[in-house]
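Run: sequence + nicotinamide-adenine-dinucleotide -> complex structure.
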Amino acid sequence: MAVDYKLYDESRLADVARLNLDLAAEHLDLEEGLRDILRSGQREFIVHFPVEMDDGRLKMFTGYRVQHSLYRGPAKGGLRYYPTLDLEDVRALAALMTWKCAVMNLPFGGAKGGVQCDTKQLSQEELERLTRRLTWEIAPIIGPNADIPAPDLYTDAQTMAWIMDTYSMFKGYTVPGVVTGKPVELGGSLGRDTATAQGCVYAIREAIEVLGMQEGAHTVAVQGFGKVGYHVARLAQKCLGLKVVAISDTGGGVYNRSGLDLELVLGHKLETGSVTGTPGTDRITNEELLELPVEVLVPAAIENQIRADNAERINARIVAEAANAPTTATAGKILDERDIFVIPDILANGGGVTVSYFEWVQNTQKLFWSEDDINRRLDSIMTRAFHEVLQTARQNKARLRIGAYILGVQRVARAKQLRGIFP
Ligand code: NAD
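>> structure
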């Protein structure tokens, strides 16, 4: 039976994830029982814990860790600190990690977690206490062979260092492989901080080639100026010679049709807290940024940015989804009808988890690779995944997102079928 889009509420991440799975399952002709297994996820852990604030007050926080699947290996996925984070979003993001790891063909299942909090309201000391207590709470279910967290929205290498230290205290010996995205001094991998962006840039390079767009000076607009957005902009300029004309953060965006000086924008952001007001740029809104006439648009902030109400006004030739779930399913359909080439999130931002995998392998082997080695291996995995997704999409007469889901879901379903049902 054809999937009916009207049965899904696309403003909910959980429904978007379920819809994409159902669309892929339709092509794969998966039996209903197996579909249910893949929809459901395996484990959900909710913790409520107090943190002492700097003024001595106690404040309660809620944290989550969802392991969507462990069929292909330990669960892998980020930890997000975000004011509106809830279980439903974490569930959907954990499922996305399952499909992403499978698309990249990494020996991992999928997980996601985080804490509902606004990091802008917390001091560094409060963040450390919150992170250490969260780690203690979820320690029974994480570990290098069980579930390996990594940075995500508003968490970073320092957060991972606190988690690694707390977990190691808990165990009584140092366990670097419990997290990835650590500082290099603690066993982090070279290239991890730029991996998501670098992988996305490799995918954009392949798309440009597939579309025969090698000639000409191409422009790029990037929504988001965090760990991913800044490096995508920098590397698109450096590696592909593209001209970055717009970039944004929560405060709004900046535009210069002749191209932005990214170091100037970064300096301004560090000084004032926002990219807006950088000398020599025009101010634009996040909505206007998405609708700019550019060759490449990179949403690199949060989910639900390209929706049915603005998809008709997207003016890019390529949309590279560096963020997770920035496009709703209906919007994706509209972009497809308008012949816009969308590199879906579970492929476009798969570079992050791929280098996380490299970090985990290096931690396990106690042997470290050079940055050149990392980037060469990343390029090879990204390029292979890109063409496998493209080929799967073409074989199924589907768009790239559905191609990616078909590939990922098929690999996970096969693993589950081979392992069988216990008992
Ligand atoms: P980050 O916290 O470093 O940066 C987020 C950026 O988005 C900031 O510049 C912030 O100002 C901006 N932003 C937040 N809310 C916004 C809004 N409403 N409108 C416009 N801009 C907004 O996070 P990040 O690690 O760069 O992650 C960005 C996206 O990439 C997320 O969707 C994340 O899940 C995804 N992602 C990250 C990684 C990684 O390695 N960090 C890997 C895969 C996917």
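>> summary
The longest helix spans residues 371-395. Residues 151-154, 196, 223-229, 248-250, 286, 300-302, 322-324, 349, 352 surround nicotinamide-adenine-dinucleotide (CB under 6 Å).
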